[in-house]
Amino acid sequence: MEQLVTATQRSLIKIFIVEDDVMFGDLVKMKLDENPQVDAVLFKSGEEMFREIHQQPDIVILDYFLPYKNGVQIIEELQNLGLDIAVILLSGQKNVEVVVEAYKLGAKNYIIKNENALVELDNCVRNLGDNINLKKEIDVLKDQIIDRNSYSGIIGESQAIQRVFALMQKIKNSDVLALITGESGTGKEVVAKTLHYNSPRRRKSFVAINVAAIPDDLIESELFGYEKGAFTGASGRRLGKFEQANGGTIFLDEIGEIDLNVQKKLLRVLQEKKISRLGSNKEIDLNVRVIAATNKSLGQLVKENKFREDLYYRLQGFLIHLPPLRERGNDVIILAKYFLSEFCALNKMEKKSFSSNTLMDLMKYRWPGNIRELKSVIERACLISEGEKITLDDLIYSEAIN
């Protein structure tokens, strides 16, 4: 069994110091370097620090008066990135309004530069370090739980679904772009979530967007965000889905429906791992895993000039095809029993079961709507049935769509 992290095995606490006073910055770093559990790096500006933010520091120590942006503005930008970073403001600024604003934005401590500042900072860092290491130990426990239940969200035992598990296992710890294909209702988003929650990004955001559900004139702002005044009605800054997913995973569902004009920008984002909000020329670095899905043939859409050929090839990073339910054999029965049990429990109903004739009928049906349709049919049958058994009379299938 994997050993838990102990006090002697704890990883280094990574600290970024942002201080334009070189002499004072060196003093701070020297003081922190006395702690063997600390790895401290000194920067002269917020811009320098943000270029290395992908290293994901545990603590950031900021001066207030800095070039380009002050300490409070940097705290706000860190908040917008959604990173789990403890911030300490170490400054000669004594303005109460500044102190209050720093705490409002989530600063853990505000230390005034005086003769006791370095001692106070050292104590603060040691206390925060204990909390950070405790959180890391809890995260190890979470990891162990996730490993033991890797694919519990995907129900089935057929060879067809086992092949899907095998493919998922190959990219479990990878950031490779994955494209999930399959008919509507086969569970593409469930697979995407399972990939995310069994990856090193599991504790970061999983952000899903169905591009087919967003009007063409809004999809760009939804994906990449915008600045105040970027267009009529843009009354303030808004982070797009890519920024919201930074550090984690973005799931682009129904990718085949995305507007051709946006496809070009999406290709650039996938290649360069940078975005620019609408109304801004500033590029924002991305550290995000991309998973896309489609129920259409992208190759056919390319032939019809509805999908960019270069984006099509870029999306071929790793393909996972989900089989339709009609090709999954006894999984139909396994899923039906699971949905029945779940529905009865959620609605505080007496447990029910299927008659043998009902199970045979479920197996014969072709399930054009796949798992989504099966779930609806079972829930409806559960409500219709009056006894403990669900019979053939309780089954109402969806109308065929020609």
UniProtKB/TrEMBL annotation:
<dbReference type="InterPro" id="IPR011006">
    <property type="entry name" value="CheY-like_superfamily"/>
</dbReference>
<keyword id="KW-0547">Nucleotide-binding</keyword>
<feature type="modified residue" description="4-aspartylphosphate">
    <location>
        <position position="63"/>
    </location>
</feature>
<dbReference type="Pfam" id="PF00158">
    <property type="entry name" value="Sigma54_activat"/>
</dbReference>
<dbReference type="InterPro" id="IPR025943">
    <property type="entry name" value="Sigma_54_int_dom_ATP-bd_2"/>
</dbReference>
<dbReference type="InterPro" id="IPR058031">
    <property type="entry name" value="AAA_lid_NorR"/>
</dbReference>
<dbReference type="InterPro" id="IPR027417">
    <property type="entry name" value="P-loop_NTPase"/>
</dbReference>
<feature type="domain" description="Sigma-54 factor interaction">
    <location>
        <begin position="154"/>
        <end position="383"/>
    </location>
</feature>
<dbReference type="InterPro" id="IPR003593">
    <property type="entry name" value="AAA+_ATPase"/>
</dbReference>
<dbReference type="InterPro" id="IPR002078">
    <property type="entry name" value="Sigma_54_int"/>
</dbReference>
<keyword id="KW-0597">Phosphoprotein</keyword>
<feature type="domain" description="Response regulatory">
    <location>
        <begin position="14"/>
        <end position="128"/>
    </location>
</feature>
<protein>
    <submittedName>
        <fullName>Sigma-54 dependent transcriptional regulator</fullName>
    </submittedName>
</protein>
<dbReference type="Pfam" id="PF25601">
    <property type="entry name" value="AAA_lid_14"/>
</dbReference>
<dbReference type="InterPro" id="IPR001789">
    <property type="entry name" value="Sig_transdc_resp-reg_receiver"/>
</dbReference>
<dbReference type="Pfam" id="PF00072">
    <property type="entry name" value="Response_reg"/>
</dbReference>
<keyword id="KW-0067">ATP-binding</keyword>
